[in-house]
Amino acid sequence: MTTSTSPTSSSSPLAERLQAVRAGIADAARAAGRAPEELTTIVVTKFHPASLVRDLAALGVRDVGENRHQEAQAKAAELADLDLRWHFVGQLQSKKARQVRAYADVIHSVDRISLVEALRSEDSDIECFVQLNLTTDPARGGVSDRDLEPLVERILDTPGLRLLGVMAVAPMDEDARRAFERVRAASSRVRSLAPEATKISAGMSQDYANAIAEGATHLRIGTAITGNRPEHG
Prior knowledge:
Number of helices: 9
Radius of gyration: 18 Å
Strand order of the largest sheet: 7-6-5-4-3-2-1-8
CATH class: Alpha Beta
Distance between the termini: 36 Å
Oligomer: single chain
Helix content: 25-40%
CATH architecture: Alpha-Beta Barrel
Number of strands: 8
């Protein structure tokens, strides 16, 4: 006879996955000569129910990522009693910008001037990353390499936005370490315009060790912690 395990028990599959990733991040940080405390792990809970986020919070998770506005908005409302930091990590339509500002603490995907203008506010600041497109496909999210500085300058000139640094997703067809080397170089360019924008949002379940080696400060980890995403329509 087997007994069921609470999702927040230290021996639950969720807790075990979370602990394994935390240990892997600590190992990668030490291998890179960095302190694990420098790193922020954002658990991306796309397609998972709010109940999973509540279980993660009980295990000490405070930074949660979502990449679809409607889902993020609903979860943030349902879990308003928890002390969570919500990171919007997906592509953001300009027309949804104000709605996302209402619940998100950080937006990782600022990639065009029209979105910067849509996020403008005279009332409050929101933290953000400028997203760099590491591919030659303009349909992918992110600003092109040649347009990085003009976009950064616009963010710095726009009230209501506080630039943390640069964000990117490693292309599937490129060595991850090489891709993150390019992100590190872009971060240096951003810091030449905004010395305080020292953060790098890079690294996911399969490549976070390479991202840490190249200076990532914010890791966006999904399935390695949450498990496989549930079926969705």
